[in-house]
Amino acid sequence: MSTFPWVQPLTLDTVDAPAGRSTRRAARTRLPIRRTGTSTFGVLSGLVILAAIVLGGCSSSQTSSRSGQLSGSPRLGADWRGSGGGFGSVSPALISNGGDPTGVVGSISWISWGGPRAVGIGASEFVSSSDASVADGGSEAATIVAFSLGSCDGIHPAYKRVAWFFPQHGESFNPSQSENACNYFAH
């Protein structure tokens, strides 16, 4: 049995294919996998790198409550009054600060959660300049970073700050342009 119970072994079965073609499929999915000339070493190296990226950002967030330390997976701040959703949750798929559409990030897929920083990709309203109206914006891919691991209530671990940005428009992570995830009104 795997150390990680959610990881299922993947086996490949050869299936009948037209003469001269090799088609393989995953035993459970029946999806064809085409040979692209990539070596087994290259594929395995890619999988190891992907696993290192995903698991490298994850750390055990379970700590002993008997020692007075926080216990459990970190939440994104606290569920403060006026929040449109997601705050106070573990790896939320949507967050909203309750304001205009630029304060909403939806369809979030978290790449990492539980380490010093949680990083995800989602969609948010992008407005090209401070002079433009929100009505002039459009939904675009955004990178979201939750950081400043601590606690909002002294009981549960939480990321106390959150920021999102649009790398495709030259933006990058800037902690000074983040929001207080514990209490939006405190900034």
Would you mind describing this structure in some detail?
By secondary structure, this protein is mostly beta strands. It folds into 2 domains: 45 residues, no CATH class; 122 residues, no CATH class. The protein contains 1 helix and 10 strands; from the N terminus they run E-E-E-H-E-E-E-E-E-E-E. Strands 4, 5, 6, 7, 8, 9 and 10 form a 7-stranded mixed beta sheet that branches. Strand 6 and strand 7 form a beta hairpin. The longest helix has 17 residues. The N terminus is likely disordered.
In short:
This protein is mainly beta and 187 residues long. Helix content is 9%, strand content 30%.
Give the helices and strands, then pairings.
Elements: E1 12-15, E2 23-26, E3 32-33, H1 40-56, E4 75-76, E5 95-96, E6 104-112, E7 118-126, E8 138-151, E9 157-165, E10 179-180
Parallel strand pairs: 4-9
Antiparallel strand pairs: 1-2, 2-3, 5-6, 6-7, 7-8, 8-9, 9-10
Key terms:
single chain, about 190 residues, mainly beta, 2 domains, seven-stranded mixed β-sheet, about 10% helix, about 30% strand
Annotation field: number of helices: 1
Largest sheet geometry: 7 strands, mixed
How many beta strands in the DSSP annotation?
Answer: 10
Number of domains: 2
Helix content: under 10%
Could you state the oligomeric state of the chains shown? single chain
Low-confidence stretches: 1-67
Q: Judging from the principal axes of the Cα atoms, what is the shape?
A: globular
Percent strand: 25-35%
Using the CA coordinates, give the radius of gyration.
21 Å
Order of helices and strands: EEEHEEEEEEE
How confident is the prediction overall: mean pLDDT?
A: 73
End-to-end separation: 47 Å
Structural category: mainly beta
